Amino acid sequence: MECTRLDQTESTVDVTAPEPRGCLATFVKWLGVLLRPSEEDSGNDELPYRLTRNFLSPAELSFYKVVIRVLPSDITVSIKPRLADVLFVPRDAPSRWTLENKIRSKHVDFLLCSVETMKPLLAIELDDKSHDRSDRSERDEFVNRAFAAAGIGVLHVRVKSGYVPEEIRAQIQAALEKSTSSMTVAASTDAVPICPNCRTPMIQRTAAKGPQKGNIFWGCKNYPHCRITLPPH
Questions:
Q1: How confident is the model at residue 43 (pLDDT cuts 50, 70, 90)?
Q2: Mean of pLDDT values over 73-80
Q3: Do 165 and 62 share a domain, yes or no?
Q4: Together in a domain, 142 and 168
Q5: Is residue 144 domain-shared with residue 225, that is, in the same domain?
Q6: What is the average pLDDT score of the chain?
Q7: Does residue 171 sit within a domain?
Q8: What is the C-alpha separation between 159 and 167, in angstroms, rounded?
Q9: How far is the C-alpha of 81 from the C-alpha of 119, rounded, in Å?
Q10: How would you list the strands of the sheet with 229-230, edge to edge?
Q11: What is the reported pLDDT for 195?
């Protein structure tokens, strides 16, 4: 919608300032309010980002150096991934948007993944004294439940001035074994298979391209978040 400029007195206008744009700018200018010029107007193209010097805290760095020493060759570690980069909420889940918002701004300290596929295997949290607060305890409980729902465990390690590599190796191994044994897959019916990842009924799809074009297969309804496929019965 085109905006008509309102009349104003010369005494309320700084003629040297850049001209505000849009209806709202015209209105506030008519009231005698001057808008600060934007960086775009000033011609300054440099963005004010700087490199943080504490990407890892001293405790996190100390633990990281131990972890990379004790991990088996087929497992790697990712640092500070967001929950929303690891987990998703199925389309038909109740309160889907609320649950998605709860994981957008949260992260875990470390995430162990398969080297070959980068499939997440285990989350690790370093717990300092702040985790003793009630709000942090509630946050930790939610994160534990969220990962458990996806079949992944969360290993909580108390912050220390130093770590014994063999102790950390044993804790990680036990947590990985627990995650594997606790992952249950719902049984498939005769008619509709259950997605082993999402544990929801799959749907029949037809390949649209590639060497399997025209073939029917079972696919997860949560594609592209989940790409599990199964052959037809």
A1: low
A2: 97
A3: yes
A4: yes
A5: no
A6: 82
A7: yes
A8: 14
A9: 13
A10: 203-206, 216-219, 229-230
A11: 84
Which domain covers residue 34, as residue numbers?
Answer: 10-41
pTM of the model: 0.67
Would 121 be classed as within a structural domain? yes
Please compute, for residue 125, the number of CA atoms within 13 A of its CA located in the half-sphere on the CB side: 22
CA 103 to chain centre: 7
Contact 18, 36 (CB under 8 A): no
Measuring CA to CA, how many Å separate 225 from each of 198, 219, 222?
Answer: 10, 12, 6
Return the closest-CA partner of residue 87 out of 154, 144, 146. Answer: 146
Q: What is the pLDDT of residues 151-199, one digit of tens each?
A: 899 999 999 989 999 999 999 999 999 876 655 444 455 588 888 877 7
Provide the pairing of β-strand 120-127 with 153-158: parallel
Q: Which two tokens stand for residue 123?
A: 């989350």
- Give the Cα separation of 1 and 13 in Å (integer): 25
pLDDT, one tens digit per residue, over 79-122 is: 999 999 999 998 888 899 999 999 999 999 999 999 999 999 99
Q: Is residue 52, in this structure, part of any structural domain at all?
A: no
The number of distinct structural domains making up the chain is 3
